Amino acid sequence: MNTELFDQENWNNLLASYVIDYWLDSVKSELPDWSDVLNLLGLEETENSENQLFKLLGQGELSSSLIQELELEVKEISGSLEDSSLENIIGLEEEIFSWYYGNPEDNTEPGCVASLELNFQELKNELRDKNQQFLNDFWSSTSPRPCLKYLSKVEAFLLNLSQQYQIERQSYLKKENGGQKSYAFLYSKMIKSDQQKVIQESYKAIINALLHIYRCKIKAQILTLAIQIIQELIRDNQAYVDNLIKSVSFLRRIKDSCVVNTNQPSNFIIAMIFGQICVNNSPEVLCKELETNLGCSLNRWGSCGYISEAEVKKMLLNKIAGITNSMYEEIKQEFTSNIVVNRDLNPAVINSN
Fold first, then answer.
1. Ordered DSSP codes for 181-230
2. Which of 175 and 276 is assigned the larger pLDDT?
3. Helix crossing, 66-80 with 196-257: angle to 10°?
4. Does residue 248 contact residue 146 with C-beta atoms inside 8 Å?
5. Residue 351: its pLDDT value, please?
6. Mean pLDDT of the chain
7. How far apart are CA 5 and CA 3, in angstroms?
């Protein structure tokens, strides 16, 4: 009889490997739907194809957007001007400049840039808090590898989104630059012309060019701030990903250390015992017990400096031995009895082995 087959230390080491694999891959709680991620980050599209993140960043007063406020400001200023003169164009440009950057002499009118920054700070803090809560709700109760796969997908999505926003931002900066060139051309044309019709046409085109320039400024700044928020979320997400990577490596090293002293372990017997353990939900119970004893969730074992691989392995093997003692003796006795019966019925076959 192969005595290694009934070496309980072998059994316990093999079962420990099975249990660790179960911990690594068995999802203990459902991972959030992808729509939950989009909703959390304000990335779901609204009716006008502008996502909630952009809408909140570009929020003005009284439920209007900053771009709507810009359009109203230009309309009111240009409508109050009596003639199509260069002086009025200069005055209009100064007014819009002051509206956008703020008036240092008047603290009651901080300007569009200050409004964007305030929106950014409030939204960044809110989203980071929501993201932290979102991650905490599932990551410590989900197996490391499925959780790592999920968060890696989120991270890849955010990185791709940041790159898309950067491309859009560059596009608006180019459009703004094009508007500046148009403005300079029209301004020069207006100065050189002595025809009233040309002056009036140039005057209206200059106003539209100014409106275009500042629309592009606002949209480019919104994208700049959105990129910063996305990058903050990526950094927060990475802290969880790093913990998971360390814990996966930590558990795999423990599994590799569970050496079995036989080249031909009975996978059938081990699978049968492991199946019995799973009937009582013992892998989860074992995990909860070790988490309680260690004072740390499974997904943080690899990053907790006070938790050693040797300590976890010893605790796990002790727990497994307590579960398998009775099953081990019962199965060993049954297999030994069957071998004796087979030897009595067919000694030639037994001797040939």
1. HHHHHHHHHHHH---HHHHHHHHHHHHHHHHHHHHHHHHHHHHHHHHHHH
2. 175
3. 170
4. no
5. 47
6. 84
7. 5
